[in-house]
Amino acid sequence: MAEIEPLKSSDADLKKVEFTQVDQPGSVGLIGHMKGFWITFSTIFKKPETVEYPEVKAPTQERFHGRHQLNRHPDGLEKCIGCELCAWACPADAIYVEGADNTEEHRMSPGERYGKVYQINYLRCVFCGLCIEACPTRALTMTNEYELADDSREKLIFEKDDLLGPLRAGMLMPPHPMYPDMDDSNYYKGDVLGAHPSQEVNK
Amino acid sequence: METTEIVDLITVVIDGFEVSVPKGTLVIRAAEQLGIQIPRFCDHPLLDPVGACRQCLVDIEINGRAFPKPQASCTIPVEPGMIVKTQLTSTVADKAQKGVMELLLINHPLDCPVCDKGGECPLQNQAMSTGRSETRFEGVKRTFEKPINISSQVLLDRERCVLCARCTRFSEQIANDPFITLNERGALQQVGIYEKQPFKSYFSGNTVQICPVGALTGASYRFRARPFDLVSTPSACEHCASGCDMRTDVRRGKTLRRLAGDDASVNEEWNCDKGRWAFKYVTAVDRLTHPLVRNEAGVLVQASWPEAIAAAAKGLKSNTSAVLVGGRATHEDAYGYSKFARIALGTNDIDFRSRLSSDEEREFLAARVVSSTTTYRDIDRADHVVLVGFEPEEESPIVFLRLNKQVRKRALKVTAIASKLSIGVEKLKAEFVKVAPGQEAAALSSQALTAQSIILVGERACESAGVLTAVAALADSTGAKIGWIPRRAGERGALEAGAIGNLLPGGRPVTDAPARVDIAAFWGVPTLPAAVGRSSDEIYAAVNSGSIGALIIGGVDPLDSINSAAALDALDKAFVVSLEIAPSEVSARANVVLPVAAITEKSGSFLNWEGRARSFDAAVHDSLNRSDLRILSMIAEEMGAELNLGTVTAAAKEIASLGAWDGARASMKPVNPTVASTLSGNQFILNSWRRLLDLGTLQKGEENLAGTARQTVAVISPHRAQAMGVADGDLLKLSTTHGSVTLAALVEDIHDDAIWAPRNSRGSQLLVNLGAGHGAVVTVVKL
Fold first, then answer.
1. Chain A contacts of B223, Cβ < 8 Å?
2. Helix axes B536-545 and B564-573, enclosed angle (nearest 10)
3. CB 3.0 to 4.6 Å from B414: which of A144, B375, B430, B720, for a disulfide?
């Protein structure tokens, strides 16, 4: 191997370094200043945009990316099938899902599979919405809720209970069986409109 | 010395590139050599070609004459002058492949989100590479009830099946368990089982692994994880001495599944269901997490490591001590125990055989087995294989697959010397030499073997006196090779490591002074004990007679001993240091309990029956447990001896630099067979072995796996059954002076004097219940 020769001081001559002179912008002049201050002055007569948060809460845009929600079918069964596609899509690795078997005695969702563990870590979430795009059953959507600050890491990892949507009128709390004479594809087509009395399991 | 096989090479052109491959190579395989991937489902290099899925269509032209239609490249061998155009260069082939993919997807459900295969599915991948992005099919997909259990551990979803016949071909050709087949025709064609016979194969897990879609899934992995959740670690199987290469998939510190690895010289791409599905024993039990020390009140209480190590060292130092290391320790750990016994305890009283054993066996191991080099390759080349005291399907399943492969390929002659015709032996189409239990030696000497033959001896051979003597004599007179196949994964490694009373590491005989000097110099100690050590049973007896006062025990179940009462008494009496992963019969009676790492939590290696090292890395890293080696080093240090084996790497290096003994081998004293017992009316001679799936400690917590275990029965011959008026299913009570068991009768081909029952299955547990092994006389009464 050839020896590398040490650098001599004569090799580097500062005088030979080329540079380009950049023109600096000149003064904007009096008219220029007037234009700028006019904006400030005119704002005095406009309606203020600020609100007295948190006493007053302005609604967000309709499609604002807020906290997630796990939705339910109209009879109360969960839409989540535990497929982990949301976790797969997540660029921040904020979602953790474990699937499990639905059985006749313990049915949480239509079909074979449901999400047994569902966690979203809001310290990691960047609210990009790729997870809701990936969800094949529209189980995961985003609400407009944005008040997610808290004082510990644990509280900011939302469990399934924190994320599940509320039981609305006509819904029953799972586990309970599927709507009679319907299968999972009926659920996805929207044939199930509410719970059937036979779905109520004696507690 | 390896002989080179001369092969004819044929040169073909694929996509404009020339490639020379051996005659008989399939086009799809020749393309692989060039790095050209032709999509496929049914093709598998270890199964016979079938051309079932039609996904691998290519354009072929031979000497200027083109086939009129695209051909399946997985069924056509290369020929001289062949020009192949794959989807990369031929629009016809490309269109044909896309068409096949479209047809395959017509009836395939779009349930990838709930399918276990999603993310590692050849159909998904190839639908992306070869399929259309939008479906043109507007009809209704064919549906089936989903899923159905074809055994307690394999689920079948017929909608997803693409009818590639990989599973049925595997079952028929590789496992020789043709329990599943393709039924019906056309769109209704489906994989099915015989109504009365579930898919009870010991190898059924392989069908799940080779299924190119999610049609076959394992019950225990169902919906547990996605491929991207799993961290995969190459590992080795800890269940038997076959030495399978494995892959362990872990999610968040918990093993979720294990797959067969690809090692052409050992397990090819297969493994058995036990290796695949028995791994919960690590997590299903309450693991020991802290050292425990027995206090003055006689209660085991938690202690710190330094306290426990000090207590162990004190107890071992103030007594005459011995070492019992079960056959499940890694090679490195066994070496640690071996060195510990010699240096720290100054004794040769160490034995890895926590099972039925004999002195004849110990001499046989020293004279014939240690450093021997019989391999799977020898089975591939053998002209005749004799099995004695060995039931390949139950005791070393990969050896069974290898034998089955050769029987199928070239009608390898197999002779089984046994009392009972087993399912495995029947499947190998073996010659069955029927002998009374204990009389195997006489049948051995009449075998005509050559230097190309192999005698495969199981660990059970030691249970009949004279068999191992006869094996050695037969090998000497014919030049046949001996393969000793223990059941447990660590036995061969422990033998090589000298964890036995008559050998030092590397096969150096204890009685050989130069060998002792060699090891003493290597270990840096002045002398080593010269007297041959005691065996397991002798150690228990010595404790009970008071000549041994302390035991250090790792991975031993005292109930595996023929006289378990004596073993338990000994544990009660002695000062016991127990190295265990979970509470056991030993740890309950121990004075000091030290928790150690399970196989998945540590690195190391096993030597399989060939003596081939099967090394593995820790698959789970967040464990607080420590390896046996490190704990032994700490105890030794506390006792004032230097073991210097802090890490597995250090032990492996030391073993490697120690090497094998090049001096004279130990010799073996011939043992005469016992005279056949005379039997009166309802007496039988007991014959038994452990089944692959039974009540073994490493199968704890695996209900799905236990569901495919074979039924617990007592097998008697038609002649004796008639004499006793017994039909299949009648209850038989087997009794000895020790106790009795009641089992359902099964009338089968067995020696008239013998009765067979599984040794450790649900309801039998012969060692505990009867206190009797192979060759014992039992009284049988019909209930």
1. 82, 99-101, 112-113
2. 50
3. B430
Other C-beta atoms closer than 10 Å to the C-beta of B137 total 11
B437, B441, B447, B451: CA torsion to nearest 10: 130
Interfacial residues of A (vs B; Cβ cutoff 8 Å): 81-85, 87-88, 98-101, 111-113, 136-137
Residue B283, pLDDT > 90, answer no
Sole residue written with tokens 């995961």: A140
Cβ atoms of B145 and B22 closer than 8 Å: no
Which chain B residue has the Cα nearest residue A110?
A: B114
Q: What's residue A2's pLDDT?
A: 62
Closest-CA residue of A relative to B224 is A99
Q: What is the pLDDT of residues B153-196, one digit of tens each?
A: 999 999 999 999 999 999 999 999 988 888 888 888 888 887 77
Listed in order, strand segments (DSSP E) in B486-641 are 503-504, 508-509, 550-554, 575-580, 592-595, 604-607, 613-616
Select from A83, A87, A88 the Cβ nearest to the Cβ of B114.
Answer: A83
Report the alpha-carbon distance of residue A45 to residue A64 in Å, rounded: 30
Least confident stretch, A24-38, B384-398, B530-544: A24-38
Token couple for B58: 């290519």
B189 CA to chain A: closest CA distance, Å? 23
State how far the Cα of B243 lies from the Cα of B616, in Å rounded to an integer: 11
Pull the structure tokens for residue B778.
Answer: 């039992």
Q: Which residues pair with A101 in a beta bridge?
A: A113
Do A88 and B224 count as a contact with CB atoms less than 8 A apart?
Answer: no
| Digit-coded pLDDT (tens) for A90-116 | 999 999 999 999 998 999 999 999 999
Measure in Å the smallest separation between the Cα of B299 and chain A Cα atoms. 39
Within its chain, how far is the Cα of B212 from the centroid?
25
Record: contact A81-B229, CB cut-off 8 A: no
Whether omega before A110 lies within 30 degrees of 0, making that bond cis, reads no
Across B619-638, average pLDDT: 86
* Chain B residues touching residue A113 (CB < 8 angstroms): 114, 223
B301 backbone dihedrals φ, ψ, rounded to 5°: -125, 155
The arrangement of secondary structure in A68-187, i.e. its CATH architecture, is 2-Layer Sandwich (3.30)
Strand partners, B433: B417
- Residues in chain A within 8 Å Cβ distance of B222: 101
Residue A1 has pLDDT above 60, yes or no: no
Whether the per-residue pLDDT at B746 is higher than 70: the answer is yes
Q: Which two tokens stand for residue B423?
A: 């399912």
Cβ neighbours for B458, distance < 8 A, ≥ 6 positions apart: B387, B388, B389, B390, B391, B395, B485, B486, B487, B689
CB distance A187 to A73 below 8 Å = yes
Q: Give chain B's mean pLDDT.
A: 93
Instruction: Kindly tell me the burial class for residue B77, based on how many C-beta atoms sit within 10 Å of its own C-beta (0-12, 13-18, 19 or more).
Output: middle
What is the interface pTM, i.e. ipTM, of the complex?
0.85
Give the start-to-end residue ranges of the domains of chain A. 68-187
- Total count of residues recorded for chain B: 783
